[in-house]
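Quick one: co-fold with zinc ion.
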Amino acid sequence: MPEIIFIILILVIAAILYTALKKKTPLTQPDFQTEKQILGEQVLFYKRLTAEEKLRFEESLQLFLQKVRITGVKTIVEDMDRVFIAAAAIIPIFAFKGWEYRNIHEVLLYPDSFDKDYHIEGHGRDTLGMVGNGPMQNVMILSQHDLRNGFLNHTDKSNTAIHEFVHLVDKTDGDTDGVPEALLPHKYSMPWLKRIHEEIQQIKSGKSDINPYAATSEAEFLAVVAEYFFEQPHLMKQKHPGLFELLEQIFTPPAAQ
Ligand SMILES: [Zn+2]
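Sure, here it is.
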């Protein structure tokens, strides 16, 4: 009789362990050729790089995927999703060699917008992607549909995943306030804030081609114009030269300017 109890106990422990292990998605990476192919075909930022920069981009991408787990919620994570998420993480800080994200360890991928599944305040842009707070600290949530759309559509000025990673970079100094102190030397923060408020006025008066969601707050302004800056830099330079120049200052380390 005691043997049976012992066997049952072992089986119960095995079942618990199995369930616990199954929940953890392994850190998988696309193979190198697949990764290069997806980058070369779909990631405009990567396409514009020199051969040497492309290599550095690929290395940064692999490092990111070694550290950050990507988990599908009611959806399957494909190689394309992994490459897009890592590319969106690398793009905003690519000029800052050796930059490492310390405030993210997991990305949850939902099939579509998740305002119904995950109760968050407000509507609009951030129901397509968000950076978690409280118990969700260090976790980013993205909509798979919008993640893919951000990269597969080569003519628009939006990219949800880049938007969310810019919030994360902004948050590095403790505040998601539109002034990314980790990137922008202090002396530039006042001119930058002044510029934000001028541009928000333009948006509110209907005289701008910047997504009106940028007028929500300073933090949203930074994230939205960064999408435009990284997706269509030539168009932004032509339509908003002053803003373009300030964004170049933000996203380029002082030594490289
Ligand atoms: Zn946002």
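If it helps, The CA atoms of residues 203 and 212 lie 6 Å apart.
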